[in-house]
Each structure stands twice: as structure tokens, then as C-alpha cells.
Amino acid sequence: MLKSYFITTLRSLRKHPVFTVVNVIGLSVGIAAFILITVFVRDELTFDRFHKNHDRIYRAMMINKDGNPQPFPTELIEIVRLSMPEVEAMTRVQVLGETLMDYEGTKVFEKETYGADPDFFKIFDFSLKYGNESNALEAENSVVLSRYMALKYFGEENVIGRTFEMADNDRIGIVTGVLNDIPQNSRFQFNTIIPIRKASNGGYRFGGQGELYALLKEPVDEASLENKLIDLTAQNGFNNRSNLKFKVENYGGLHLESEFSQTASGVKGNKEFIFIFSAVGLLLILLAVINYINSSTAKSLSSLKQVGIRKVIGATKTQIRFQFLIETAILVVVAVFLAAALAEYFLPTLNSLSGKSLKLNYFSDGFTLTFLILLIPGITLLAGVYPAIFTSRFKTLRLMKGEVVGSKGLFRKYLVAFQLTITLVLLFGTQVIKQQVDFFVEGDIGMDPSSIITTYKARGTTYDVMKSAFEKTPGVEAVTSSPYPFNGTVKMPLQWIVENEQKTDGVPYQEVAENALEALDIQLLRGRDFISGSVEDENGSVIINQAMVGLLGFEEPLGQKIKLLSPNYKMVDYTIIGVSKNLAFNLKQESTPAVIMQADKRLSSINIKLSEGVKAETIPLLSEAWNELSPSSPFVYSVMADEIEANYEKEKKFGTVIQVFTWVAMLIAGLGLFSLSAFTIIQRYKEIGIRKVLGASVFALILSFLRSYLGLIVLASLIAIPTAYYLMNLWMNDFVNHIEISSAIFAIGIGASLLIVLITVGYQSVKASLINPVDILRNE
User: Percent of the chain at pLDDT above 70?
Assistant: First the structure.
């Protein structure tokens, strides 16, 4: 019996090759997209959970009153170690940013450098390929390298005992360990680990914050641990005037739950994106199933007499349904194998879009193999039950007469309307996301960052000398400087009096060279700029931004006095001499009140404005000027526009991935329309023949076919427009600055759906309208 089912199925598939191809393509594309999204979502949900004790690892941070993390005091760490018996091991982890490496005269800034305590390898499961985890960070000059670093600098992996100069060129690092490859779903991606007591400011540019990680003897409540730390600070006389508090978080949840990334690469997950991707994956597999249902029911109409004959000779409804389920199962098996190949082929594209290094280990990963196997019965039942019931429900006599009573195809039309609705929502959403990202990237931030590059002051020289050398370089328009990167955020205390009431706050500030506003084209709305050489401006004048005017509450801010922290750490009076335009380095956030003051001699971050933008020929000239002043260190720079654009990298990748899956949905919807139009036209063959005999033109017939599908587009649009409008506004509510959704977005999406209908339904309509009516009516 089973053999008979298979033979019948193969004959049916060979008899209808177009429908077979449509079914397989629709299912395989939908399943491939579902596989890729599942792999991505699983990677996010299992981030950092490869550590066997991830449920007992906790991160503790000190948070100031502004909500920013602070370094953990060494004295408090020792008190925690001695006073909390539930702690099994502890380590500090400090992001050191870029480190200057010197090996055999080659000097390079390397990223992903971290400082850690000796217990680091007792807490985390980062194994060493060479070396001993128990003492790899014991000696002060210890260095643990990644395999990448070992191969890059030494040409081999086993480099235990090898030495090279680090950071400020007065320290010799001895390699005590070489890491095995770190799993890609780890928030820490080390190039170099050194003992944290050796970590200093020398040689480390723009270093990060220190954090405390502890392995506890058993899982605990985070809030209770925070209260214990507060009690410890009070009992041991720590000054709490800055309103510091503690934030304790389980390590396994940091990637998705924590607002602080605190890694060199800034890796951080997003629960909202995971939810959206999961929903898109389920919708795509559902669209593929709907596609199959429509295609199968359309095909079954051509074999109803065969079903009638089988009923006449004694076949039951169950046997007929089982026959169609066997056919579905065979197609699903083929589609799953094809989908697995498609997923493997397009995985590098997904990795490129998401910034990940995902892998599909079908045979070595039990989850992936089990997932694929379970897809076969799941999709078979989901896609095959309705066509099986649909085909077996007709009466035998009507089947033999070729009648299909009660089958107007309304259910299948609603399914296609659902397909169009989902496709339109994705189309509208894709356009909104693109326009929002374009707004971020091209929006007015108060200056033009596209022609500004940032570097650092080299050791052994001064800012004035470097400024003079760079200004002589062709293509350079202006050079200025500040102690910190210009788009950084550093806060200081502020005091002022308004209406006889003293107020205090903490505000971001930026110290700059006297020519910074002019050099960087920062617009001064009122007042004046700093005067070069003015002692008064250097020690007692500030420029505030528009948001600061609102905070202070002065009717006329120019000439008003405010107290700020001076370079010698005393609160002194500063006079407001100007009001500048708000600088919005991140348009997702509200412009915050800020002050600009003239810097003292601590000018370490150099901003160079190029006259014709960042050109390939200008950079080598700047590098030559640098090498003449500091041949012992490499010329490293960043483009300010790129750094600002990096703030929106998450949204850009999200939009690109959604766009790709929107194309997938459009392909599946097109196949669905192709199937439904075929179903409708088979039912209307007799009508076509009669109308052609009565003189109907080809154009009139085509128009009659398209009319019903235009109704489906209208129905889908009526549902999709408010749905997309609500969802996109919900997404944009997270941004202070966002676009207004225009009607053009909906018009473009509806136009795209009309194009899909014209291509798919139009093809079937033209094909049917050109049939000779004699061929249709000869058997009637």
C-alpha cells in the first residue's frame, strides 16, 4: 500500500512540474529564511552561556547619580573579598581600548586589550591552548595573547616565554598564555589580557571603566547583593556624598538585559530586535505554508476525477487524505534539504549584515540537526492537512461529473490577502527604517563632521608643534585640539543662582583650543568666541549651548556668572560669553545642556579639518608629517563622521536585514498569487471559452481576472497601513528625533504590490485568454 502511495505521488509530481517547482521553491525559501533567523535568535539568546557557571557569575558596578558607571575602588574589593563568604572568586575586568604593541621595531595599536586579576580564569571558561590558567596572570609582566595575536607577531602559536614591548615602551611583556579560539557569542573578544595592576594610562588611549566580576557559591537575588554592598560601604567609612549606588547583574543576562555594554567592541544585544526577527521568521514560514496550500488546492482540481475513480473502487477519505499527506511530506523533505543548502549559501550574507560569525553545524550540532528533522513533520502537517481535507471532501458523483460545488476559493483568497498584508507591512516598515537611518546619518548635528579626522598627540612633542606641521600639509584647512575626543561625554559639577535661588547640577563639558569653534564650523548664535591669548578667557570664560540656556533659566545668559570645576579642582566663577548651537552627536538622544571652556595645556586629542573632505591622497601626507615628529609610534586616525554614524549601526543593520526578508516575503507572495490565479483560472475555463465565443477580447478577459485581485490589494492595504503606522511609530518612540511617516511610503508599498500582481496574475491571465475556445469547449 505504501509503495502504491509513493508511485502515485511521483506520477502526480511529474504530471504537474510547474506546480511542483512552485511548491518546492516557496517552501524552501521560507524554510531557509526561518533557519537563518532561528540560528541568529538562538545565538543571541545563548550569548555568554557557554560558561558552565554562568548562573553564578555576577557583575557589580558602582553607578553615580548621573547613572554612569564608575571604577570599583580597590579598597572596597578587598573588603568584599574578606566580608562576603558567599564569594568563591573575584576579578576586576578593565577595558583598556587600544594598546601600542612593539615587536622587533613594528609598532601597531591593537584593539580588544583588557586588564584582569589572577582569578579571571577561575571564573570564566576561557581556556588556554598553551600555558596554565592558574598562574597565567600572576606575574606583573604577564601577557595572555589570542591565537590571532600570536600568529600575527610571532608566526606561530606556542610563544610561551617570548617577549615584546608594550604600551609606553618601558615595559617588557612576557607571554604566559595563548588562548583557544573564543566562542563568537562571547561579549569578551580578547586580543590581549594583562594583569590589571599593570594597567595604567600610559600607552592606553581612551581606556574604559573597571568592573568587578564574582563567582558566587550559589545563585542569589541581585537586589539583596546590592544592599549588602551598600551596607559594606557604610560600615567601612566610604564617602557616599556623590550618591553612588551599586548595580549587580547576572552575567548570563548582560547581553540582552543590561544597559551597560562595557566591552571594547561595545557588543550589546537588543530584546526588541530579537522579538521582531522571531516574528518575521514565523511569518515567513507561515507565508510559505499558505503558498503551498494555495498551490496544492489549485493542482488538486485537475485530478478530481482520479480521486473520484479511487472512491468508486473503494478508497476511503482517510486513504485519500493520507495519499496527499505523503505527497506533501515528499515535497517538504526535498524543500528542507534545499533550504538547508540555501541557508548555508546565504549565511555569510547574514553574518556580514549582522556582524556575527554564525555557523550551521548540521551534523556536529545536535540542536540544528534536531531542528531540521522536526521541521519535516511540523510543516507537513501544517501545510498538508487542509489540501488533503479539501480534496477528499467532494461527493463521488460530482467528482465524476467534474463539478466542484461549494469551492469558490474564498478561503484561499483570504490567505493571499493575508500574505499581501504581511508583505505590505514589511515594505512600509523597510522604507520607514531606511528614511529614519538616513535622517540620523544626514541630519544636522550642529557641525559638518564629514571632513574632520581625529588623531592623538604623539609622545615627545607638543600640540603647537604638531599643529604647525599639520597646517602646512596640503589639503588641511584647520587644526584644533581638546583633552578628550570631541564627541565624548565628560561631566563636571555646576552651580548657579537664578532669582536669588542657588541651583546645582552636573553637566557635560568640553575643553577646547581657542580656535575650535571656528576650525570645526560650530555655529555661534549669540555673543563672541574665545580670543586667542586672552588670559581672562582662558581662566574665566565659557560658551554654553542652546539647551544650557534653557537649564539655567536666565532671560539674558550673556555676562551671567556660573560656578564650574577649575583645572585645580576648585569651584570658581566663569562668565558666559557666547551661546552656540546644540551639538547632537547622537540624534537618537535629546540634546543635553553643555558648556565649552578653553583648555589648559592638556591638549591630547587633535582634530584636523580637511579642505576637500577625507581623500586618499591627503592621509599619506599627514602620515609623513606625523612620522617626522614621532617616528616611534604609528599614525592612527578616525573620521568623525564614521564615529558618529557608528551610533546608528544597530539600526542600519536591523533595517538591512528586514529589507532582505521583505524581498523574501515578496517572492513568496508572488508565488502565492501565481498559485491562486492558476486555481481561479482552472475553475473559469468554461467561462473563458464561452466569453471568447461571444466575442470577448483578450484585454477584457485579462481585466476581469485582475479586478478581483485589485480588491485583495485594497483589503490588504486597509489592514497594513494602520498596522505599519502603529508599529513604526512604536519603534520610533525610542528616538527623540524622528521622521514623520509620509503618504509616499504607503504609495510606494502599494505600487510594489500592484507590480507583483501584474507580473504573476497577468502572466496567468494572458496565458488563459489566448487559449483557443474550441480546445476548452470540445468536451462540454
Answer: 83
